[in-house]
Amino acid sequence: MDEDTLQFYRSNAQAYAGREITSRQTRINRFLAVLPPGASILELGCGAGADSAQMLAAGFDVRPTDGSPELAAEASRRLGRPVETLLFHDLDKVEAYDGVWANACLLHVPRAELQHVLTLIWRALKPGGHFYASFKAGEEDGRDTLNRYYNYPSPEWLRDTYASAGRWSSLAIEKGEVRGFDNEWAEMLFVVARKDL
Q1: pLDDT per residue over 170-190, tens digit each?
Q2: Which of the ends of the chain has fewer CB neighbours closer than 10 A, N or C?
Q3: Which CATH class is domain 3-195?
């Protein structure tokens, strides 16, 4: 992950944790609806733990992780359980999860590294497992007004990158808009993929 971006989240962990976001509850519910009851879920980039809290409350076996030790500590306080610090390229599990939830975190992976990270996620999923991720849409990578790096993919670039990372039986991309931590509206790509059986 880009060091300046990671440092931003480390330095702003408490302010970031104080945000309450409800706009993605529909997407979480749709994601959980396709998983078996009590399914094992890896959350990457859990931030302050709000999404993990919702999944745990619904009875799922969730492993929340974040690349920032400070945000992992915030999530641990919220969830009342340990939250691991995990960088994407350190993911080493094989066919361990029914689902992987990566909301607004893989968008910070440098373009040249995204295929490798997606391959690690594909490998960590059980056959038939589901994977959700969201990205800020664009045509080339760059930084926002807070100096955070974004890979800013197009739908076509994302499809090609996913295809080169593993075999998926389905891959759907929806578009939408969200207001970010910088208080700016951004066009988003919401990706749901299912690993081949």
Answers
A1: 999 999 998 777 777 889 999
A2: C
A3: alpha beta
